[in-house]
Amino acid sequence: MILSARIILKRLVESGCLPADALEGNQGQISSMNRATHEQNVSAEDRKDPGRHLVISPFAMESLQPASYDLRASQDIILPRGTCTLVPSLEWVELPADLAATLRCRSSYGRRGVLISAGFVDPGFRGQLTLCLVNMGAEDVELTKNTRIVQMIIHEVRDGGILYNGRYQDSHGAINAR
User: Fold this and answer.
1) Please, are residues 144 and 161 in contact by the beta-carbon 8 Å criterion?
2) Using CB atoms within 10 A of its CB, is residue 127 exposed (0-12), middle (13-18) or buried (19+)?
3) What are the beta bridge partners of residue 156?
4) Phi and psi for 13 in degrees, rounded to 5?
5) Tens digits of per-residue pLDDT, 48-104?
6) pLDDT tens digit string along 8-20?
């Protein structure tokens, strides 16, 4: 099952990423919240079990779509044609044991020839996502910081219990292959 915008908001409220009124129609007033805010709202019990909550930080309401969340570029960058470029997401993402994510390029960039590879995020992943963007278009593509570039589609994982604990856990910035 793919999570709807309403369920994504509900899970973010439960995690302490967003205030409770995010579900009450005050969505226009939600500002970007940072990871430090989430850390302050997390109980000691939750810190012992970090795979319990969905975290997207900083969150931006304009990135929330009906059945996805648009990840943003963390910096100004040019995608040269014919090249794979590693672009770190602005967002820090934490997926609990019952959620995984698929990454897809937004259609506006797909129409310009931008493709994404390595588009799956395992349950238990936490960190900035490295977006592997390939520009197959006729010209270079410029991205500015905060540009919504990739859709993160969040899926329910039934009977999940194994968490990601690989080489890219707690990533910051664009991470090359290890």
Assistant:
1) no
2) buried
3) 99
4) -65, -45
5) 455 679 999 999 999 999 999 999 999 999 999 999 999 999 999 999 999 999 999
6) 999 999 999 899 8
What's the DSSP call for residue 57? E
CB burial of residue 23 (10 Å; 0-12, 13-18, 19+) = middle
DSSP 27: G
**For 32, phi and psi rounded to 5 degrees?**
-60, 130
Which class in CATH covers the domain with range 5-156? mainly beta
- What is the per-residue pLDDT across 19-28, written as a single tens digit (0 to 9) for each? 988 887 644 4
How far is CA 75 from its chain centroid? 15
Whether the bond between 58 and the residue before it is cis, its omega within 30 degrees of 0, is yes
Helix then strand then coil, % of the chain, to nearest 5? 20, 35, 45
Q: Which amino acid is at 7?
A: I
